[in-house]
Amino acid sequence: MKFDAAQFDNLELDNIGQWPSAAKLLLAAFLAVMVTFLGYVLLISDKMTQLERISSEEKTLKDAYRTKYHVAANLTLFRAQMVEAEATFANQLRSLPNSHEIPGLLDDITFVGTTSGLDFVKLEWQPEISKEIYIELPIDIEVIGSYHSFGQFVSKIAGLPRIVTLHDFKISTGQGDSDSLNLTLQAKTYRYQGDVIQ
């Protein structure tokens, strides 16, 4: 079959039935391509975008399901851990002095210092420092004694039934007696902002 360009001359849309076979085939191929393209653009492309979006949502939902399944499967364990955490928190709150015990804390520190062989130069409360869930109560302390007495003092402070932390240690030589040293430090105790459990 020879291709003859002359057969495409004088083609009119009014009489497609009279067109040569090659022209009809070319028109049919063009229309098929156009219908396929328009069908994809108008019908399929939106569905493809929607499918990608739904696939992404499916992955997110599966991840959420796995997390919730893990929690549900271990719910008994999580509840037991929550009860244990609440008990630990309540126990720690009991270790914090309440407002009635704070003056007695100074007496305890004084007693611990004197039984350790220290002489107090200074023991005074500083302004409270309010934090997010607790109040910090600093106490400035200055004592005179031997190095070993300082060790006993710190050890006995750690053994108090209430939480007391020691900060900013400074040891210097005392005046006069060559064996005496001067210790300045800051002790801090804490009070819970909410209702303290007794």
UniProtKB/TrEMBL annotation:
Recorded superkingdom: Bacteria
Keywords: Membrane, Transmembrane, Transmembrane helix
One of the GO BP terms on file: type IV pilus-dependent motility
TM helices/strands, residue ranges: 25-44
Pfam families for this protein: PilO
Keyword presence, Transmembrane helix: yes
Protein name as catalogued: Pilus assembly protein PilP
